[in-house]
Structures are given as C-alpha cells and as structure tokens.
TrEMBL record:
Transmembrane segments: none
Family statement: Belongs to the 5-formyltetrahydrofolate cyclo-ligase family.
GO molecular function ontology, one term from the record: ATP binding
Protein's name in the database: 5-formyltetrahydrofolate cyclo-ligase
Taxonomic source organism: Shinella sumterensis
Cofactor(s) needed for function: Mg(2+)
Length: 194
C-alpha cells in the first residue's frame, strides 16, 4: 500500500469515528478545547490568527476564536478560491459570511486578505509527532508553502478530537508537521526532531 493509499484509509477510519460522536459530545469537546487553549495560545497583540467555520463533524472553535479576539488577536477564516488555492480573509464576529467552496463558510470578497501568524488547522488524523492527515485536497499544505515563500513561518495548531489520533501518520516529504495539537484533552506542544 502506498503512503497515499494508507493516508486515505486512515482518513476514512478517523473521520468515521469523528462522525460517530454525538452532537452533544462534539459540543462539549469544543467547549473543553476553549477552556484548555483560550489562555495558553500565546501571541503578540494584533497577531493574525486563522480559525475556521466548522463543516461536517469538525469541532466548533468559534468560542475559542472569540476568546482569542478578546485577547487582542485579529481573526481570519480560510476561503477556497479554486481547487488549488485558499486565502485567509479578515473576519469580525458580526460580519456576514457566505459559502466559499469545498463546503466551507467565510467572509466574502470584500474582506481583506491577511497572512496568518497562527493557523488553527482542521484535520482528519494526527499522531504525537505532529504529523497530520488533512482532507486530501492539499489546500493547507500549499497555503503554508506560499506563506513560507513570503518569509513567514506561521505556527500550526491542529484541531481534532482525541478519537482522531493514530499511532503513526505516514509522513511524506511535502507534509508540514504541526507545532501543537488541540483536542478535548488539552493543548499539546509537539517536539520537532531535526
């Protein structure tokens, strides 16, 4: 089995476990995430943090984003422009949102495009080493590459439920590891091995 095939199998398995969580369990887990990370995610005043509007059975991190905003963060949401590209548009809690592609919701084209200092990254599976499996389209990998090409090194915090953890993710050369992982059990910093 190739790494791509193995990732697809792991993705399907872990998303099925996430989908099997009750809405109440997902709500409680999202609240726990806010409690664990709201004060522990460190950033300078005015830092740009990209969150996301939940789709399917993802954790709802909007309360966490509100807490980060109250601490001085500028917020943005990812917007899918086409099959290859996402950008991060400025978002205020009272601003309208629209359907933006790939099942996502975000600010419309009138919102400013920002370059995040911290990305809260949705995912389908992760391991303790910070390797992640996304949804298979590579949007975040390409966005991170574009930010790095501009000399930016955003902090990457994976957002998932405990049930999405696996023993090992088959990392490929293009994969970018996470700096931290937030689940309902807490915020874990990943120690990168060079």
């Amino acid at each position: 089995m190739t790494a791509k095939e193995l990732k697809a199998a792991i993705r399907n398995e872990r998303l099925a476990l996430r989908d099997a969580m009750t809405p109440q369990a997902r709500l409680e887990a999202g609240q726990a995430m806010t409690g664990h990370a709201g004060e522990r995610i460190l950033f300078a005043p005015g830092a740009v943090i990209s969150g996301f509007w939940p789709i399917r059975s993802e954790a709802d991190i909007r309360p966490l984003m509100a807490q980060l905003r109250a601490r001085g963060a500028r917020l943005c949401l990812p917007v899918v422009l086409d099959r290859e590209t996402i950008v991060f548009r400025a978002w205020e809690p009272d601003a309208p949102v629209v359907k933006t592609g790939f099942g996502t919701t975000g600010p419309g084209p009138e919102a400013a495009v920002l370059e995040p200092d911290i990305l809260l990254v949705p995912l389908s599976a992760f391991d303790r080493a910070g390797n992640r499996i996304g949804y298979g389209a590579g949007h975040y990998d390409r966005a991170i590459d574009r930010l790095k090409a501009k000399g930016r090194t955003p902090k990457l915090i994976g957002i998932a439920f405990d049930c999405q953890e696996v023993a090992s993710v088959p990392a490929e050369p293009h994969d970018v590891p996470l700096d931290a992982i937030l689940t309902e059990s807490g915020l874990r910093t990943v120690q990168q091995v060079s």
